[in-house]
């Protein structure tokens, strides 16, 4: 072979390699939906998710900011970080799976935002990467939002800080045991009231479904079930409002519907935890329905608590023997039924001069997740409710806002 022929062949081979690289690059862009704002990640061209969508792996730090419903995303390698000053936008109907080996989770840093706006017919779903039928609580780590709000760990901040929007979002099979990083379904750490959280479901998780550490984020239209510790767990100066909350034991053990703490080491530490709970329906806890302790106060109005293994409402001595905490407590226009007992002595002493009904709430079919009151239910009698909050007691009146977007037990 002549030197000239060899040189020509070398050039041809070089051109072939360049062509293959360019073709591969174009395939990658096509796999990402030609989205120039797609997050960093690997396209697994041999694996496809629901509907044949490409699977994109996300790990370490997300530097680009749109997750498309035309793809499936998989969180891998532990914490997947949304860094400060980044806005992560997630389209309606997007599916995000968390891996279990190692357990991975999504963490939004202070100064970052997540804009996850699903719809009733196209909710955004965070779930386990295991096949349907083999998923279980604790398969992946869940979501952690870190805000610039105020609490015991963060005395200076912006009460109205925004960490973004979570609307029509489901979180499934997340969490961890206490000794494994204490991850929950979703954790709000000093998250401010500018954050919008509504139509959120947390389904089948280890530890708490929702944990609130300081901050003042408000929650509205929340469904939580199948948690292995508490449904709502607040501490360290949380002061937001929670309205239209369904907290239902499903499979396994569920400790408390609501566990409210101020500070175990300093019950009078300020700002005091004193959230407002309106229109909750809490059903079937193995322990208390609602527990306030360690200096926590709170307002509980227009709520139903039923079928709990211990007190429907308990105020521990660390709160009830604390006059400044009691000054920030109000328990009015609530229904308690078939708890053991309905009110413990601490709660009874505070609630005895307020409107409390020890009545069967007559809900439609709670074992099959129909929480609507029957037409004859005392929950629908306006005279029983605090009308400045709503005209009914419990999470649902005549409009079933849970229809179509939540996951129900198989």
Task: Chart the SSEs and their pairings.
Layout: H1 3-31, E1 42-48, E2 54-58, E3 66-67, E4 72-75, E5 79-82, E6 87-90, E7 95-98, E8 105-108, E9 113-117, E10 124-128, E11 142-146, E12 164-172, E13 186-189, E14 196-205, E15 210-213, E16 218-227, E17 230-235, E18 241-248, E19 256-261, E20 276-283, E21 290-293, E22 298-301, E23 304-306, E24 313-315, H2 317-320, H3 323-326, E25 329-332, E26 334-337, H4 345-351, E27 356-358, E28 363-365, E29 370-373
Parallel strand pairs: 2-4, 3-6, 4-7, 5-8, 6-9, 7-10, 8-11, 9-12, 10-12, 11-13, 12-14, 13-15, 14-16, 15-17, 16-18, 17-19, 18-20, 19-21, 20-22, 20-23, 21-24, 22-25, 23-26, 26-27
Antiparallel strand pairs: 1-2, 28-29
Can you walk me through this structure?
This protein has helices at 3-31, 317-320, 323-326, 345-351, and strands at 42-48, 54-58, 66-67, 72-75, 79-82, 87-90, 95-98, 105-108, 113-117, 124-128, 142-146, 164-172, 186-189, 196-205, 210-213, 218-227, 230-235, 241-248, 256-261, 276-283, 290-293, 298-301, 304-306, 313-315, 329-332, 334-337, 356-358, 363-365, 370-373. The protein is mostly beta strands and 410 residues long. It has 2 domains: 9-38; 49-384, Pectate Lyase C-like. The longest helix is centred in the N-terminal third of the chain and has 29 residues, at 3-31. Residues 1-46 have low confidence and may be disordered.
